[in-house]
User: Fold ATP-binding cassette domain-containing protein from Wandonia haliotis.
Amino acid sequence: MVEKVIDIHNGKIYQQDHLVLFDVDLELKKGEFVFLIGKTGSGKSSLLKTLYGEATLADGTGSVAGFDLRKLKRKHVPFLRRKIGIVFQDFQLLMDRTVMENLVFVMRATGWKGKKAMEQRGMEVLNLIGLGEKAYRMPHELSGGEQQRISIARALINKPEIILADEPTGNLDPDTSKEIMQLLVAIAGEGTAVLMATHDLSLMEQFGGRVIRVEEGKIKTLTTMKDFDPFSSGDSKREE
Ligand SMILES: Nc1ncnc2c1ncn2[C@@H]1O[C@H](COP(=O)(O)OP(=O)(O)OP(=O)(O)O)[C@@H](O)[C@H]1O
Assistant:
């Protein structure tokens, strides 16, 4: 049996009192790479927030990395977050400390002890993303693409089952976006499921794979890019 790391059925997702998504059915298997698309305001971020415990799943059933979303309490969220790596459009690195200190900060917050062990794991994830030599640089000394790779390294620290990426290439040029995509696809190839929200159709065309569209409060799975009609979704090549 293939292991499902995300398994939601008949869910409803609210932001405050506003019903954003209903009839939410979503399955992701170990090591799968899936694009999440939809117009601005359609609910992509709300869906991702639900998966990492920031918004509530009302109704239906849902599990993420073995956690039951319907029974998830505030106190469980830090444990869920250890199974999920999150990558944002704006990198969200702490600018007043080095790359390694950024990684150590997350490790301390997720229960790691011992400076040596933390620095060793820090170097491991930096070498995985090919930036070991930047460990003691400040974030502002790095390019946007390098900063995003560091944020991916940070997401990998606790060997997550899932990476949730909310428009990770939104601030990057096309070549750098492609490098970030290659990295995320390679991570999926190692067994970590990746769900990536994006407006960048050219990346989907280049890389292919399963595409999920959020539309009119529902989730629709497009099996191949051939099913994709950019004119019906309001998505454009790039929305900057
Ligand atoms: N904290 C909030 N309180 C109330 N409504 C919210 C909140 N956050 C989002 N919404 C509403 O929920 C809907 C979905 O927003 P969401 O941010 O999930 O969309 P999105 O698809 O991620 O958009 P974008 O592509 O612009 O990031 C929108 O109508 C938005 O106004």
